[in-house]
Specification:
single chain; 259 residues; Stationary-phase Survival Protein Sure Homolog, Chain: A; two-stranded antiparallel ribbon; 7 helices; 13 strands; globular
Length: 259
């Protein structure tokens, strides 16, 4: 069972992400974490793994390289990073809290199934650790408002970890695309839903062979006012509990009648 973290100042924090060790969002999270605790470790992918989902590297060995004692990168996925951190690098003193992000781009609605940011928090949750995934909405062609994250993130984390999370539950936080003083507040939300239309572009390689580029998906939203999608679009910080249990119990009962 995930546990509460009543005193963050004495907690060991593990940071990871999916944008890679050199991502600006991770640098922001490191500054936020340093304001919460003196015991902060960063173990993140060597390169960008956006869209990796909850994937593991199984068919080759992983290399762990230290930049400093507490800043480490792994040539693997976000899931690999958390797994190695908890079972090897920090095995003698496991983290009290895992923070993943801050992702460049929101992770709302079905994004949670693709996101390596969410996946790092999922792996921590499976290992019995409280975990918070953090993401920043960014408009196309707009500069990310990292200042909004820095202004609000620490207090969000402090509030979220005051009580123990149930088994299998992580927290997904999404910051809106606006300035720090323009944030309208915090909303506790459900996971929303997008109507997704595929965006696959066909092209040719230098040898005239067909190749395909998976682009940003085109999404149309029917906004549930209680959803993460609606909250972020309206300028609120969304805080969404995500459960690893994905069984649909209504269908379960129907299938029992058939079998």
């Amino acid at each position: 069972m995930s546990r509460a973290v009543p005193d963050l100042s004495r907690a060991r924090l593990l940071l990871s992400n999916d944008d890679g060790i050199h991502a600006p969002g991770l640098a922001v999270l490191e500054r936020v974490a340093a304001s919460l605790s003196d015991d902060v470790w960063t173990i993140a992918p060597e390169v960008n793994h956006s869209g990796a989902g909850h994937s593991l590297t199984l068919k080759r060995p992983l290399h762990v390289r230290r930049i400093t004692e507490r800043r480490i990168h792994v040539d693997g996925t976000p899931t690999d990073c958390v797994l190695l951190a908890v079972n090897k690098v920090l095995a003698d003193h496991k983290p009290d809290l895992v923070l993943s992000g801050v992702n460049l781009g929101s992770n709302v609605a079905e994004d949670v199934t693709y996101s390596g940011t969410i996946a790092a928090a999922m792996e921590a949750t499976l290992l019995g650790l409280p975990a918070v995934a953090l993401s920043l909405d960014v408009g196309i062609g707009q500069a990310p408002r990292w200042d909004t994250v820095e202004a609000h993130c620490a207090e969000i984390v402090r509030t979220v970890v005051k009580q123990a999370l149930p088994p299998g539950v992580l927290i997904s936080v999404n910051f809106p695309d606006c300035g720090p003083d323009e944030v309208k507040g915090v909303k506790v939300t459900t996971q929303g839903f997008h109507q997704v239309r595929s965006n696959v572009v066909e092209a040719k390689d230098p040898y005239e062979n067909p190749v395909y580029w998976v682009g940003m998906q085109v999404r149309e939203s029917e906004l549930d006012p209680n959803s993460d999608v609606a909250a972020v679009e309206k300028g609120y910080i969304s805080v969404t509990p995500i459960h690893m249990e994905m069984t649909d119990f209504a269908t379960l009962e129907q299938l029992k009648q058939l079998f």
